C-alpha cells in the first residue's frame, strides 16, 4: 500500500530538538524530524507508510484522511 498523501502534516521548528518536527495529527504518535523542512517532510512520509503497515499487521483501523483539520 502506498502512503496516502492526503493526511495533514504539520511541520514546525523545535528549539529544544534543534530540528524541524513533522507531525500527522490523524495518526496517533506519527511524527518525524529533520535538519531541514524538506528532510522532515521526506522522513514523515516514510513514517506514515510504516505506521499504516504496522496498523495493518496488527489488525487496527486506519483512519481515513479528513483533509485540513480545524483547531479553535
TrEMBL record:
A Pfam family assignment: HicB_lk_antitox
Superkingdom to which the source organism belongs: Bacteria
InterPro entries: HicB-like, TA_system_antitoxin, TTHA1013/TTHA0281-like
Start and end residues of each HicB-like antitoxin of toxin-antitoxin system domain: 7-66
Protein name: Predicted nuclease of the RNAse H fold, HicB family
Species assigned in the record: Algoriphagus hitonicola
Amino acid at each position: 500500500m502506498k502512503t496516502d498523501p492526503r493526511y495533514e502534516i504539520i511541520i514546525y521548528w523545535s528549539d529544544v530538538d534543534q530540528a524541524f518536527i513533522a507531525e500527522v495529527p490523524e495518526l496517533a504518535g506519527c511524527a518525524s524530524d529533520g535538519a531541514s523542512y524538506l528532510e522532515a517532510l521526506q522522513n514523515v512520509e516514510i513514517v506514515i507508510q510504516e505506521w499504516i503497515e504496522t496498523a495493518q499487521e496488527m489488525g487496527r483501523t486506519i483512519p481515513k484522511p479528513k483533509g485540513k483539520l480545524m483547531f479553535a
